[in-house]
Write a structure and sequence with these properties.
Radius of gyration: 20 Å
Helix content: 40-55%
Oligomer: single chain
Number of domains: 2
Protein name: Four-jointed box protein 1
InterPro entries: FJX1/FJ (IPR024868)
Shape: globular
Length: 226
């Protein structure tokens, strides 16, 4: 995804000028452009977040025995879901798996349906769609959605090694917001036109990194006891 400034007479927009006129975008507005990916398909959550989550089973990490019988392809997918849940917890995104989880109170079969704002690429990779419900927006609504995000985070105890290492580094350096700001300014040409996290939101981000770090440490301690 990239951000762009709407300039109807600009060279960048010349190939799609007719479409731009019909878009009703305001001149000078900042819009997001997303690369088109062919042949994306819907995704249903695997265990422990799939259909059994709607059958009265409290979410909990898969046991060592359950993990031990999974084929490599399913383990690879499980780690992708682990990254997704961790990312959505850090950003307080409520419009993906959390949205399905929330809907269980009305629809006990919702976890067996396609996950909101998530698709699968032909190579098997998960594609996160529409992440606008995270960070600034998500942090405003923590009281409502955080119990669901936290329950999902506690339901995983399998993490990509690189992910766990990066979380530990951000925890140790207390640098989550600073690192995000550095990358934001280095990679986003329009950063000066846009806002950033408030001081309170930056503190929330670091606190969530710290919580994830403690959870990973807890999982490691549990695994060491097996």
């Amino acid at each position: 995804m990239a951000l762009a400034l709407v300039e109807a007479r600009g060279q960048q927009w010349e190939p799609v000028r007719e479409e731009l006129r019909g878009s009703h975008w305001v001149e000078g507005a900042v819009v997001s452009l997303t690369r088109w990916v062919d042949n994306l398909t819907a995704v249903v959550a695997p265990a422990p977040w799939g259909a059994e989550a709607g059958a009265g089973r409290w979410l909990q990490p898969l046991s060592a025995g359950e993990l031990g019988v999974l084929p490599p392809s399913q383990l690879v997918e499980l780690v992708q879901w682990s990254d997704l849940i961790l990312f959505d917890y850090l950003t307080a995104n409520f419009d993906r798996l959390v949205s399905n989880f929330f809907s269980l109170q009305w629809d006990p079969r919702v976890m067996g349906r396609a996950t909101s704002n998530l698709l699968r690429a032909p190579d098997g990779g998960l594609v996160f769609m529409d992440n606008e419900a995270g960070l600034v927006h998500g942090y405003r609504l923590l009281a409502m959605w955080d119990p669901y995000n936290e329950s999902l985070l506690r339901s995983i105890c399998v993490f990509r090694e690189g992910t766990a290492r990066r979380v530990a580094e951000l925890h140790r350096r207390r640098s989550a917001a600073a690192e995000l700001r550095r990358r934001y300014r280095a990679r986003e040409p329009l950063w000066a036109r846009l806002g950033f996290l408030s001081e309170r939101q930056a503190e929330l981000l670091q606190a969530r990194v710290d919580f994830v770090h403690r959870h990973i440490a807890h999982c490691r301690a549990q695994a060491a006891m097996l």
